[in-house]
Amino acid sequence: MKGWNQFGVIETIYEEEREFSSTSSSSLSPSFSSSPPSLHSTINAWSINSGCETDVLIRVEGTCFRLHKERFVTKSSYLKRHLTGLSDFTLSPPLNITSETFATVAEFCYGRKIQLTSRNVAAVITAAELLEMREGREGEVSLRDVAESYFQRIVCVDGFTVLRSCLSLFPEAETTAALGSRCIEAVIWENDGGDDVDESVLDVVVEMEPRDFQIVCYSLNERLLNHDVLYKLVDLYLKENKHDKQITDEQKTEICNSVDCTKLSPRTLVECVQNPTMPLRFIVRAILVEHLTTRRSITEAVTTTAVCNPQQQTEVQRTSLREFLQRDATRRQTEQIKEAMNSTYSRIQSLERELSGMKKFLQDHQAEEEREKEKENEHMNNVLNSERPASFHFAPNDNSKIQRGGRGSVSSSGFVLDNMIKKNNEMVRYKYNVNSSEGSCHDRNVTPKSVTSFRHRFITGLKNTFKISNSSSNLKDHQ
Q1: Taking Cα atoms as reference points, which of 49, 63, 60, 68 lies closest to residue 109?
Q2: What three-state secondary structure class fits 468?
Q3: By three-state DSSP, how is residue 101 classified?
Q4: What angle do CA 207, 210, 215 make, to 5 degrees?
Q5: Tell me: the pLDDT tens digits for 23-41?
Q6: Coil, helix or strand for 114?
Q7: What is the pLDDT, as a whole number, of residue 422?
Q8: 8 Å CB contact between 457 and 416
Q9: What beta strand segments (E) does 317-472 contain?
């Protein structure tokens, strides 16, 4: 009632209600207002001219309208049925009519020229449909005709505003007069096709409730010859509301069923087939239609060239069939390539894991071998150091010489000693390996028996070495 407040409508209406409740006389004359012409002044003027007082109180959204019953039962079939025998009536849901809209309806019933705009025309049309004000008496126009005439003029100029005003009027605005679908259709024609659709209109579509959007889609299904725009609206709506749990799978399927795949262009049909947003049933239907469309194209091409010479007709048939087979083969090949790539990628990942495991195993094995070699060398050095006489030691810089106390070394004895040590080392390693391969439970150190044997051979070798050295030195002295 905010729009009517500036004309003093609310004050005069409630003033009438207070006067109506303060007296039991039904002949109480309404008071006049000095405000600009309004519904109140219209009702008062009618009372004076007709000599009849108001005889019915109609309540809408808490606002009371004290009116003449005769002015409404002649215009509205709905009110004629419900006001019979009543002087107090409430317009309540499911009637989607606001108090502001009903004030406009009342103005029309009293013969005033109503003010229609792009913001209220949808509401007036909806109210006219709900109140059954479609047909006027002879020589009169109905409220539905007046509002519809204005709608057809304004929707081509400001369809977006009219469409937005329909949001609060759904589903009645669509079920009674197809206002939402007609606004969308008008915007489509205004933008010269499905590719010049305004994004602001798409934003309004996204705001619709799933039930309302489904009703609008089915209305568009019957109104549109080409369903490319309808497909785009459905695709956008599903993408924008994909996380909305209020939209069930059944609703998504029903919304998509409003799109007739046979009314889609070939380009849009291919897009449908490749769109993961669409339900599987819809995609399968689009694939079947695509195949049928291709076959029909081939048949039409063959029929068109039937008047040509046989050779040319055969060439056309081969060309059409080849194009069809190429398209089908390309699609199948693309799918196979995708599957092969996915399989190859999985195999590569598996091989990388296996190689990484093998590399780690080899590194661990190599490190273990190096540790075993270090232990073996350390053990041999300990054995040699423990069995070597205190008066003998190897020269740090020349392993081929043996020193005894402070005396000189003999090259031949050093050579023999080196060979003897190498042989003993090889024998110790051989026995160590043999003992290890036989699964001995003893520690990997050389057994005491082997150490004693090595000591005996070592001392014997030293004696033989020095015997040879003494003999050599005696010969030199004699010479």
Answers
A1: 68
A2: helix
A3: helix
A4: 105
A5: 333 333 333 222 235 788 8
A6: coil
A7: 58
A8: no
A9: 392-394, 402-404
Q: What whole-number percentage of the chain has pLDDT above 90?
A: 35
- The answer to whether the beta carbons of residues 159 and 178 sit under 8 Å apart is no
Q: Which helix (H) or strand (E) holds 140?
A: none
Distance CA 294, CA 303 (A): 14
Radius of gyration of the chain (CA): 53
CA pair distance 91, 60, nearest whole angstrom: 5
Whether 224 contacts 184, CB under 8 Å = no
Beta bridge partners of 208: none
Longest CA–CA span in the chain (Å) reads: 177
Peptide bond preceding 171: is omega within 30 degrees of 0, i.e. cis? Answer: yes
- Would you call the peptide bond into 396 cis, given omega within 30 degrees of 0 as the criterion? no
Cβ contacts of 72 within 8 Å, gap of 6 or more: 56, 58, 79, 80, 83, 106, 109
For residue 361, the model assigns a pLDDT of: 85
Q: Which tens digits make up the pLDDT trace of 448-472?
A: 455 456 656 666 665 565 554 444 4
Among positive and negative, which fits the CA dihedral 116, 121, 123, 128? Answer: positive
Q: Which strand (E) or helix (H) includes residue 56?
A: strand 56-60
Number of neighbouring beta carbons within 10 Å of residue 227: 23
Residue 402 burial (CB < 10 Å; 0-12/13-18/19+)? Answer: buried
Instruction: Provide CB contacts within 8 A for 344, sequence distance 6+.
Output: none
Q: What's CA 354's distance to the chain center, in Å?
A: 35
Q: DSSP 3-state assignment of 129?
A: helix
Tokens of 244: 């909305």
DSSP 3-state of 68: coil
Strands of 56-60's sheet in order across: 63-67, 56-60, 88-91
Token code pair at residue 53: 């007082």
| Listed residue (42, 63, 43, 67) closest to 55, CA to CA | 67
For residue 289, pLDDT over 50 is answered with yes
| pLDDT per residue as tens digits for the range 333-348 | 787 777 777 877 787 8
Structure token pair of residue 243: 């996380």
Q: What is the pLDDT of residues 205-244, one digit of tens each?
A: 999 999 999 999 999 999 999 999 999 999 999 998 887 7
Q: Residue 67 corresponds to which tokens in the numbers above?
A: 């009116």
How many CA within 13 A on the CB side of residue 156?
7
